Records
---
Amino acid sequence: MPNHYTLAEGCPYSNAATSVQLRDGRGGGLSLLQDTQLIESLAHFSRERIPERVVHAKAAGAHGVFEVTDDNSDITSACFLNGVGKKTECLVRISTVGGESGSSDTLRDVHGFAMKFFTEEGNQDFIFNNTPVFFIRDPLKFPSLNRSHKRHPASHLPDSAMVRFFPYIGEQSFHTGSPESIHQLMVLFSDRGTPASLRKMNAYSGHTYKLTKEDGSFKYVKFHLKSKQGIQNFTREQSEQINGSNPDYLIQDMYEAIERDEYPSWDVCVQVMDPKDAESYQWNIFDMTKVWPHKDYPLRKLGQMTLNQNPHNYFADIEQAAFSPSTMVPGIAPSADPMLQARMFAYPDAQRYRLGVNYQQLPTNRARSSVYCPFERDGAMNSHNYGGHTNYIGSSLSPTVYATSSKGSGTVASTMTEHEKWVGEVVSYISPVVDADYEQTRGLWRVLGKEEGHQDRLIGNLADKTKNVKDVSLRKRVYEMFARVDEGLGQRLQEETEKLVA
């Protein structure tokens, strides 16, 4: 540690605990504007908060390592996924979604799982959730979905998680007006909606990605992270009890486990689909409200990720960390998934607003590989601006800047195959909800029935929220939505809710 304090510019300061004052003989005095330390300290304090994330505001975070455990060269050319035993540094942020930074992390919510792998070919980001499906498949609904999970615009009170009223859609809530959310709601209101530990839950890409090879071939994949600690969830009653005593329970559990050298780890796996299979598969493979059944596409292991170091400084390491699904290395590419395409814009745009246009230069986001991007320069907080290098591509004035990179992308983004054209036609109409949209949810209802008490707890969790709906016609719409999954489910939900309302 230094043996003296300084101002931010490095000038030594003799006493960091006392301001400069013009004193009288009785111990009183006036503060002086010449006290640079006082002025700087007060001014900086008012500016110490950066904009909070609109979603995923509350999170735990840690550093770790990804290790390749299997030969993956037949499906991808990504360097960090090839070479058994190869290790890559990573950063992980695990968050709630709807609540503010100061909210409880044990209340029912989806949990985000953001990862950054610092590879020799640049950073690879993934944005996963702890549920394999999502509420919507049309990105136009994304802002409304997230607003619907925020506080009521008039009362500033949290609405019932089942019947969010913002935005208003006639007499419907967001979810009854967007019934494709039923699969995610069934998952969220089961015990999986209240994980007992961030270390003991899985994570899923939800999105369909491509793994590509240098010859231009590719496979469609969905990523799965399988917890090696097992799965552990709270019941609703347990989560609410812990919420009342420790709203930071999940963050504390993760931090203290790593401090004890109990490093959590996950097997990183993929489901792999040939592009030709996608053309005839029974469901649209780019629909985030559906899964690929494992009986059709079993898991294949790529490697293992382990978190082994807590952040040195939470703000610097985790709060300033920026993740975007648009950040991809050669060997990984986007699919025609509409939600993925929209998020590839929305996420980095959020970081430009929240952290500034040069957020990639912050230490926690900075690539470990070499970076040469002189056509993105200037702007606030730029710490590396390429000196006198020409600031546009293909200039004859700078022999170090080339119109075409000497490093191939390793993806198939530059070619449009007949299959890609087929994909474009298939995903043109994605909003209408038909009976087939309930098929997988019916399967989930049957799976929950195989373990004693799971269906009962799901109904109890739903009824506990639906009872808060004062509008009788809106409650009826909720019953009808779940009755489309199973008539017995809708009837039991109605009976349980009406008991609580009475």
---
Amino acid sequence: MADAEAAPAQYKQPSRKGKKAWRKNVDVTQIQSGLKEVREQIIQGGVVAEKPSDQLFAVDTIGSADIQKEVARRHKPLKVDEILAQRSAVPAVDSRKRLADLDSEGKRKKAKVSGKEYDRLRAIAYGGEQVQKDVVQTGSAEYDPWAVQEVKDDPKFSFLEKKKLKVEPSTLKRAPISMARDGKIIPAVRKPAAGKSYNPDFQAWQELLTREADKAVEAEKKRLQEAREEAERMERAAVESESDSGEESVWESEWEGFSDNENSELKKKRPERKTPAQRNKIKRRKDAERLATHEAKVKAKDQQVQKIKELAKSVAEKEKARATAKEILAKMDKANEPLSDDDGEEEELRRRTLGKAPIPDAMLEVVLPDELRDSLRLLKPEGNLLKDRFRSMILRGKVEPRKQIGEGKKRKYTVSEKWSYKDWELNKK
């Protein structure tokens, strides 16, 4: 049918000079297909080539939701970007001065609020007179947070456990206990030794360096002695374990040929009557044991009496030290000058501290010969004021020494890039 509608044509014409190569024999298939396509476009709404660009194309300003979701899943945004992306719906305060907000002198006009509006806002803010009566005036100096407050029991909640009243701790009114062994009051900020300076005097620096070196040598000797004693103890334990195993093997070899049946068949001998000499010996032994028990009780009683005397003596010394501390505090308050040590040496501390944790050692503040600098530009600051202040509060008895709590182990994450070009399968047909 398509061949009948098409015009006769000769597709391969070597020349068009003759009568046979006129219009009736020219190929017009391409022209007819173009006209047909134009007619179809007119039916559908117009020729595409004649339409403007805004009717043919559209600009996608939103983007694909699926692609955005996939990108957000693969590349999670940073927390700083999330914070910066948050924008308040409230517009910012305009800081520009407008003519309407200025008075005749050029100053900014104050916001005017009517008296009625002011009273309404005040009632909302403070809740009126009834709320003001119920509010406790905690700002005054007469307010005592440890005072006993009357609590009215509600019969509806009688089955609940009653709340315990606040009780003032007994140590609240006591003066802090100094951690020094002699009970001397330690100043909050001590005057450091002259040898700890970044540009110290040679004599003071030499004395400080020698003193700290002697301390380090003594600590190392003590550590080596403890390690030696531990090694000897382990050797003795190993020798004792070997000897015990040898004795057990000998005992097993001696009793190897005997059995329990043979032991049960042995006849037991009848116990003989004790002689007078044996009875006298037993009596003397019992008397000696009785006398030793009596002497031990008397000795324990004497020790308790001695301990009571020592406790009374220590209590008297504590009272005396406390009175001395109060006198020193009074003198310090009067003079308003902190105490300071000229030599800068550490005080000998008490054996028993406030808490279970030991008092941290002071930081080693000694400048070695190769660390001395002759210029402030080459100076390297050292020390930690926070640690110094915390240790000072511990020595003065303000706070208890505590162990540092380390951070827990965090979960480890392994980040790897997925190779998408490897995810393919061979289609077998």
---
Amino acid sequence: MGQRDTKVKGFIYFAAISTSLTTFSTGVCFVWTSPIIPKFQSEDVELNPIGRPVTITESAWIVAAMTLGLMIGPILAVLALRFSTKKTVLLLAVGPILFGHITCIFANKANLFIFARILMGIGSGAVWSVLGTFIAEIAENKNRGFLGSFPGIASNIGSLSVYVIGPYTKIWQFSIVQIVPIILFCMTFGFLVPDSPYDLIVRGKSDLAEKSLKKLRQTDKVGKELLFVQETVQRGNECKIQFAELIKDRGFRKGLTISTTLMIFQQLTGILAVVSYAETIFRLAGDFIPPSISPMILGVVATTSQLISSKLIDKMGRKMLFSGACISEAISLFALGFYFFRLNHGLDVSAISWVPIASLAIFMFSFNSGLGNIPWIVTGEIFSSKVKPIASTITALSNFIVSFLIVICFPYMIEYFGMGPTFWFFGCCMVLGAIVCIWLLPETKGKSFLEIQDLLKN
């Protein structure tokens, strides 16, 4: 029995890790600008392929262009899901990311880099709108939360690689390096990981669904689980796919409210603005730690917190981790705002020069221990198979629209209100997020898809 369990765990872990190579690449894309924007601001043609410092507008759009792509990706993904499985969509989704990096190898104009960032966003948006559901469907009830945290871990490792490699390589060299994980994903995931059994049942391919389960569980005794998958899909098929009809269903409305609310509060941390401008923020904060080193520390903290969270999520549950993370986020953001408020008003901050790195370390730890992964995990859990494509798309779009607005508004908020009040605003949002989470979010830890559906309807 012990040997069989080891085999089961071994392959399902491999499948989750292989799948999560997509988010390694998206993690690279999300923080790509942190070490690259300073290169674009340089007059050194060896560092800056554009040949001149970029304007403020060009810099803002190079950062924000990815969020435009993020809004396009989920729409393309849901259209593709009408004709193909989630596995196929994930394989297609890395294409724009790949072409984005290839474009960066040869680009020498700001517009080309903006185009490349849009491509990265399209691929990343498609990946995140499908990935959580795919992993939820190949996992078991007992380890769904743990495996669902793998994409977040991979994303943070990808971000860390940017902080470590980006400052010390030229843009074209850095772009070549980022092609490697995409090729590795296509080879391992494409040839070795099966389609989701839920996808196959939806398409009437019961034999292939059984083979998929046998491979995922590494046992021939999958009859009971296959029947459960069939029952779950059958229950989902009873729902009409027309959105006008879906919105009348109590379970769908409640699930959509929960998932979109979690996504909105995830972005109201200001996470994308912080990681996009991390090196710039540290330059403004002072030289307690070199600006090129500080983001590396944040990357290590983020990855460590994801690893810790992956062990806790199936023990502590989603509600406690998310609400606790919101409170920790609020504390760190208020402290960071206090530092910049004093700095911008000409007050002495030498005695608290450690506050920016400490606050942002707590910020990253809190985000990745709950806010970063739980919205995606919950989205993969609370919808029936029939409505998951449209529900996941709406949920992902809510995330990416808010992230676009924050990235666009962030420089203007700093200009008109100052760095301190800007971080205080995000801190207040986190206090509100904790309250809303405690009131709204049901606990899905250890529950089957059918149990979660019944919970939402009641």
---
Amino acid sequence: MTDQPRLDILVLAVTPFMTEPRGIKQVQELRRHHSVTTAGIGPSPFPDLPHVEFRTLAELQGGRVWRIKNALRQLFRRHRGTLNAHPLVGEALEKLRDGEWDLIVSNDLLGVPIANRLRSRLGVIADLHEYAPRQGENRWLWRLLIAPFFDWILRTEVAGGGTVGRGGAGGRGGGADGRGVAGVTSVGQGILDEYERVYGFRGELAINATPWHELAPVPTASPIKLVHSGLPAPARKLEVMIDAVLATRSEVTLDLYLMQNNRAYLDELKARAGGDPRIVFRDPVPYAELVRTLHRYDVGLSLIAPTTFNLEWCLPNKFFDFVQARLGVIIGPSPEMARFIERYGFGETADDFTAEALARVLDELTPERVDAWKRAAHEHARELSGEVQARVWSELVERIAARG
């Protein structure tokens, strides 16, 4: 970081701030160099910083009549009316309209039109996370109602809302006092490439890296202990990992730390395991304890079926959780994760996303091979930590300030 003035920055979340990992990382990094105010649903995890609290969507939304009207607005592509009638947008604008900042960071897409209508001397950084127009593409009602609304926000508020698009400023998205979108970030390079291909703006990579943990690799013994953590989402086809363990000739075990948000699918997975003692379903642990819990294992499995665009190009938190836990990592041929495996050498990529391909990798496992992966994870854990990777936020702010 070069010497630069201390800026007043608003980090805006349209989700509960206490459960927004990227927003928390942004604040932790930016407060090192600037004065930060937070805004989002519910309380802030930073009691020493100014915070503007929004009510929850359950508190803000109207009854059935409001929901029907909102669905009709979306169905007939009344996008500006949908935006103006969104209860969180109204709440945020009411509570933030008197503020003035040098720069606003919008956490996720819906925050961009809010940020564009506030006073910001240098404009807005739009952190778009995943590829928003296809987030719920596996649900027909989402494709019918939400996808066109998100597409409209991207075209009018991001691509047409500032200086990030090809050819310079657009300006349509900026409010009377705002400068519009000055920078865009997302979680994976493939997603950034798709934004540029479809909408014409260039963004920067900000991966979901896990905070640094002071750990060392544990020597591997037999049986080799496999682990997976995350959401039990049918689109991810977690049953492939279970089938592979049931099929492999190697001495392995598999522990699954899965959230309890989809009991039906969780019950299907347990039935699939058939009571095999090698496969154990564990209760989820708080995120603050997850990496040290994972550290007891040998290899993290991050095999996620590419059933949607965002799953095809995923680079999930769990991938970097495994690195901080100093584990080896086995993945399917997901291009974003494969790029890291190839570069840093802490795991292996299966030939495809089938149980047969994963079982072939498991058949070749030895404690010596896993120990080599663990050493590679340990060697690169600092570089791939959240603290180091979060510097992209400060570097982007510095470049925007220099332009301003």
